[in-house]
Amino acid sequence: MERSVAGLVGLLAASPAGCAAPAAAARGEHDAASALIERLLPGRSGDFILESIPSEEGRDVFEIESAAGRIVLRGSSGVAVASTLDWYLKHHDGCHVSFCGDLLRLPDPPPPVPARIRRVSPYKYRYRFNYCAFSYAMAFWDWPRRERMIDWMALHGINMPLAVTGTDPLFERETLGLLPASELRGPSQPPRRAGTDSQEPLRVERPEPHHAVGTARQLSP
Predict the structure, then answer these.
(1) Would the pLDDT of 71 be above 90?
(2) Of the candidates 74, 94, 126, which is a domain's last residue?
(3) How confident is the model over 49-58, as pLDDT tens digits?
(4) Residue 103, domain extent
(5) Predicted confidence band at 64 (pLDDT cuts at 50, 70, 90)?
(6) Looking at the DSSP assignment, which residues form a beta bridge with residue 193?
(7) Which of 30, 100, 107, 148 is deepest in the core (most CB within 10 A)?
(8) Does 17 share its domain with 121?
């Protein structure tokens, strides 16, 4: 399972510029994307060829075309490759992947793409989640449910999901020197995070932002 977690996290992580081993990083992302295809379409990962292409001005790019009876999925990152698969299934084969069920009736062999398709994302970062998401159903998810969400995010081009795991010790460390011990409360457990952390995590009174209010009033007609 550790290998699966590492592969999926690598799939959603952006490759840093100037990476010492870009070929190795691309292979890792391709391995994670190939594993995603196998989970989504068991026994069909061999129908697809995965290739890397450069990004365009820091934005993800994907391309799709057919070659020798297989579908070529090109992307500038692991997420771009995964979103290429989603685009092919949705717009070319009438398939659909959702939280409530899938419609995956991919013919064998897969239908060819008449001409090469290229898409460039208008956004560098595609975000998902907020703190509330970690306090409700997600607090009780098992690994298969989390793996499913990670796959869904990759298919839909999400490359910056909120990650709060491990942040509680950092918050506690940074606040211990600012407030007396009598004013501190321990970090909330995941199911209570949205309610307690947003209402009264440390019983700190926050002054009204006078400058912001004043600016807003000046701008009002």
Answers:
(1) yes
(2) 126
(3) 999 999 999 9
(4) 2-126
(5) very high
(6) none
(7) 30
(8) yes
